[in-house]
Amino acid sequence: MNLDLDKALTSMKDQIAKYCQEKDIDNPVLVGIHSGGVWVANELIDSVKTQEPLATLDITFYRDDFTRAGLNPKVSHTQLPALEDRHVILVDDVLMSGRTIRAAMNEIFDFGRPASISLAILYDLNHRELPIQADIVGEKLTLSADQRVKLSGPDPLTVSIIDTK
User: Fold this and answer.
1) DSSP-based three-state secondary structure for 123
2) Does residue 73 have a cis bond before it (omega within 30 degrees)?
């Protein structure tokens, strides 16, 4: 399977602009989840009508497997503005089980109660363990159980499918 990263990003840019217009979302906060989500959000920021700089989120301490997996040696910084009554567009590279997004929403609510949270995902793998669905999807993929999407970057931003066997 060959992935066309530019095509998926272009689709997201078109969808996000249309989504904000249809939902009458003005000046949203674009939040990228470290690290792939931040890279994708950087590609999308010019498609969103906002005066806010890109916000970033590290969900390491909010993961439900933190006690099992331990501390990731690459803990990043969360940089969020006040989110009370703001529209948030949460961005990540891959949606698989939904657990990363659940952790991200838990952390977001620690910074205030947003008016809404919309989800933008580069690749949706449709392996849900939680009832979480993206509003904006670059591409939906069907992979075997031993395959994963790997986004590398940020410069250059590339994508590949890797086997976990």
Assistant:
1) strand
2) no
Peptide bond into 131 cis (omega under 30): no
Which residues sit opposite 137 in a β-bridge? 121
Would you tell me how many other CB atoms lie within 10 Å of the CB of residue 36?
24
Which candidate, 9, 13, 48, 8, places its Cα nearest to that of 30? 48
Query: Does residue 143 contact residue 131 with C-beta atoms inside 8 Å?
Result: no
**Model confidence pLDDT, tens digit, residues 18-52:** 999 999 999 999 999 999 999 999 999 999 999 99
- Yes or no: say if 57 and 67 are a contact pair by the CB < 8 Å rule: no
CA 8 remoteness from chain centre:
14
Q: Is there a contact between 39 and 32 (Cβ–Cβ < 8 Å)?
A: yes
The whole model's pTM is what? Answer: 0.93
User: Which residues on adjacent β-strands are paired with residue 95?
Assistant: 124
Buried b (16+ CB within 10 A) or exposed e, 97-119: ebbbbbbbbebbeebeebeebbb
